[in-house]
Amino acid sequence: MKRVDRRRHVYIIGKSGVGKSKMLELFVRQDVAYNHGLCLIDPHGDVIEEILDFIPKERVEDVVVIDPSDRDYPASFNPLQNVDPEFKHQLTQGLIEVMERQFGANWTPRLEHVFRFTCLALLDYPHATMRGMISMLTDRNYRQKVVEYIEDDMVKRFWAIEFADWSEKFDTDAIIPLVNKLGQFLSDPMLRNIFGQKENKINLEELMQEKKIILINLSKGKLGEENSSFFGSMFITKIKQAGMARARMPEKDRHDFYLYVDEFHNLVTETFENLLSEARKYSLCLTMAHQYVGQLSERVRLAVLGNVGTIIVFRIGGSDAVILEPDMAPVFKTKDMINLGMQEFYTKMTIDGETYDPFSAETLKILPTPHGSLKKEIIETSRRKYSIPADAAKKLIAEEEATIIRSAQEKAIIEGKGRGEAAEEAVKMEEPLI
């Protein structure tokens, strides 16, 4: 497959255990061998384990391992830090879509309204973290501190006037559900130790341009399905932002960057749909895989089939074969797709921008790594550059929490004294003159 054609994206579908993961591994191995930059989002971690064994010595320093289940060295990933003002609203919209996916049918316009202004406020605050979202909604002292940094008058007005009224009247509808959902994620130490850090060592725009190998292990067995989906969707949102930022550099200076997403249906938001249509302009090449069409909404399915240049079909079920038959016609029929053997697939490719008739093929056998595994060295190197020890993360979070509590106590004392002095003055005014 030519590099230029991969900019039109690759869609892989097939039942479990038929060869999709091995194909992804082959793709990634080739990109590593040819010194390309890539990001692999793996919901199980198995492909990442194989890739870590394959990485050669000369690319050890290029690897960024992001594993939220690593309790010893949480990644320093703060999606709210150092966001270009040009992209604040785009990032906010992406974060809204992440939360909307988590809420499902319970998402409301009022929740969206409050969450939008929460994000916009924190993006102006230099010490913001994801944990700060809860403080913004529940802690008046923290909120007042953030408001001092807000640059947009409309955002400042919301917090100074509108929210002050809302928090009294609509806390059940507009505030408590957000606090509960954010608390669900941030109460988990694995995510809290990541999202509680102020520093962001994972600058995706730089990593993409420097051709780094980003491996994101979202093992649902370790993280849980909701945490895995939340973290992955958050990362996709940041990748889109980093991709859009590449529009500012001359096209000749943009290196192709390859994004692999296995079981991509778990991370689909409007941001992901937009990536399909816009990513090519930013030299961001998507390869997405999943098991069956029913995992996608009709809108997403149409967006995928309408935008990808290459479709790869392993063995699928009858209903999926009916849907995909028009794309495989006139060469292959429904019964052909149902009866494919292990490692066998049909593909319809775009070559030099032209679409050709589909043909059959088999995945290549994956050869043993020609060198010993450098996995331990890779993980240690990545931890040193992109993570901090868990004890350090816990200490930073505890110090921030203590500061917030101390500030609240001091303010309460000052206000208490003020009320006491006012009461004394009132008593004096009521005393009869002698």
From TrEMBL:
Superkingdom of this protein's organism: Bacteria
InterPro entries named in the record: P-loop_NTPase, T4SS_component, T4SS_TraD_DNA-bd
Domain spans labelled Type IV secretion system coupling protein TraD DNA-binding: 7-315
The protein's name: Type IV secretion system coupling protein TraD DNA-binding domain-containing protein
